[in-house]
């Protein structure tokens, strides 16, 4: 049996059924994998160095806006990222800005606030009624923040936390740290001498690489001692300093006190979206720092050992596979010339069921971080014990004294009184 098409072609009925079945299956698959929510965590764009070393010929005056500020290169990087996110989520996010769909939060630092603004400029260029000036292809979109002194979510390491500082001290005594120091001792002395720094350690040498890296990107002269071999070695030590902050030893415990805080918030956002997939926000963006991405990715155990580059972006996507059945996918964009590459949470598949995603991360989420941050000092414990023993001894002596007094009182006859016999003799 056959079917005649509108153009006169005769198509076998079996083929019609096959094609219809394939189209129906494709529609069902498309409907079964619906994007419901996105969270992105990105690093700020290109900036000036945060400081200069004493012997550097390029001091703060060499940078138009001073130290630690977003450059025009950095602004363009985040505008490009905004455009890339716009293309990736076309059809999911509204073409024009909608206050009910997106929320952006940044640390209270100039370069992250400006990066968020540049990113939003690329994500939501104004259209139609949102244009307030035909000569400006930009519209104001809110970026939320909290004072730097109150930041407990996006800037790492989060301090004060005595337990974390104790773990860092233990890390300094780890074989890897000790060997790394020994193998680079002469090199660190050379760097200290060339830069004029009084102290140059595995933990501080990253600042030297940062200065040289920023200066080279902006075509400023490089000192003769900073050969390519020196730069490569500084880069390796810089990456080691990030691992020192959140890994090397006790990575899971460090995560509970640091990156796990952000993981917990992201999971909370994802869970809320899964509970109300057709309501609420669709997109949350966090504008942060390289240490934020380092802490986050080490808590997730997906860190590649390298500092997150400018405008790199970690993506979490929540999909609904069927009614009430959700999965989470992660991607990392660390190269603007390539599509974000997939990340897989250890112990799961790339498209990880939400319940498993949550259970696997439970180990790095503290139920009471304030309590876990506390450290019981051995010295203080000894002082408490000695104090308790002393109080116990005093109490024991007081009890003995009280019992002795009571015993002596009971040993005398009730109503005893001495009677003089002088009167009887008289009589």
TrEMBL record:
It is a single-pass membrane protein. One of its GO terms (cellular component) is lysosomal lumen. One of its GO terms (molecular function) is acid phosphatase activity. It is found in: Lysosome lumen; Lysosome membrane. It comes from the Eukaryota. SUPFAM superfamilies: Phosphoglycerate mutase-like. GO terms for biological process: lysosome organization. Its main location: other. Its EC number is 3.1.3.2. Keywords: Disulfide bond, Glycoprotein, Hydrolase, Lysosome, Membrane, Signal, Transmembrane, Transmembrane helix. Residues 1-32 form the signal peptide. It catalyses: a phosphate monoester + H2O = an alcohol + phosphate. The keyword Hydrolase applies. It holds the Pfam family His_Phos_2. It is an enzyme of class 3 (hydrolase). The chain crosses the membrane at residues 384-407. Belongs to the histidine acid phosphatase family. PANTHER family: ACID PHOSPHATASE-RELATED, LYSOSOMAL ACID PHOSPHATASE. This is Lysosomal acid phosphatase. It comes from Eleutherodactylus coqui (Puerto Rican coqui). The lineage of its organism: Eukaryota, Metazoa, Chordata, Craniata, Vertebrata.
């Amino acid at each position: 049996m056959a079917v005649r098409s509108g153009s006169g072609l005769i198509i076998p009925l079996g083929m019609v059924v096959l094609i219809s079945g394939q189209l129906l299956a494709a529609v069902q698959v498309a409907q079964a994998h619906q994007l419901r929510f996105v969270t992105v965590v990105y690093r700020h764009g290109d900036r000036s160095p945060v400081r200069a070393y004493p012997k550097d010929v390029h001091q703060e005056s060499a940078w138009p806006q001073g130290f630690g500020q977003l450059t025009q290169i950095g602004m363009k990087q985040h505008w490009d990222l905004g455009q890339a996110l716009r293309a990736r989520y076309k059809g999911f996010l509204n073409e024009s800005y909608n206050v009910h769909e997106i929320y952006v939060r940044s640390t209270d630092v100039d370069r992250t606030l400006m990066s968020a603004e540049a990113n939003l400029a690329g994500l939501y260029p104004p259209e139609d009624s949102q244009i307030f000036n035909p000569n400006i292809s930009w519209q104001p979109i809110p970026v939320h923040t909290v004072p730097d002194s109150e930041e407990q979510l996006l800037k790492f390491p989060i301090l004060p936390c005595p337990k974390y500082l104790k773990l860092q001290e233990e890390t300094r005594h780890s074989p890897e740290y000790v060997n790394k120091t020994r193998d680079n001792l002469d090199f660190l002395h050379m760097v200290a001498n060339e830069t004029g720094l009084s102290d140059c350690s595995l933990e501080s040498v990253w600042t030297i690489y940062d200065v040289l890296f920023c200066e080279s990107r902006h075509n400023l002269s490089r000192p003769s001692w900073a050969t390519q071999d020196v730069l490569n070695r500084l880069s390796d030590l810089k990456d080691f300093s990030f691992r020192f902050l959140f890994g090397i030893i006790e990575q899971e415990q460090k995560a509970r006190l640091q990156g796990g805080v952000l993981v917990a918030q992201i999971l909370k956002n994802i869970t809320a979206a899964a509970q109300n997939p057709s309501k609420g926000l669709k997109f949350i963006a966090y504008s942060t720092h390289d240490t934020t991405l380092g802490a986050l990715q080490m808590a997730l155990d997906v860190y590649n050992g390298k500092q997150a580059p400018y405008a790199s972006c970690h993506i979490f996507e929540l999909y609904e596979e069927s009614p009430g059945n959700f999965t989470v996918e992660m991607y990392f964009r660390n190269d603007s010339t390539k599509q974000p590459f997939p990340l897989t949470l250890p112990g799961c598949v790339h498209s990880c069921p939400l319940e498993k995603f949550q259970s696997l991360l439970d180990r790095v989420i503290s139920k009471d971080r304030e309590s876990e941050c506390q450290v019981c000092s051995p010295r203080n414990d000894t002082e408490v014990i000695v104090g308790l023993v002393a109080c116990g001894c005093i109490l024991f002596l007081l009890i003995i004294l009280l019992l002795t007094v009571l015993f002596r009182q009971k040993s005398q006859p009730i109503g005893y009184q001495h009677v003089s016999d002088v009167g009887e003799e008289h009589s």
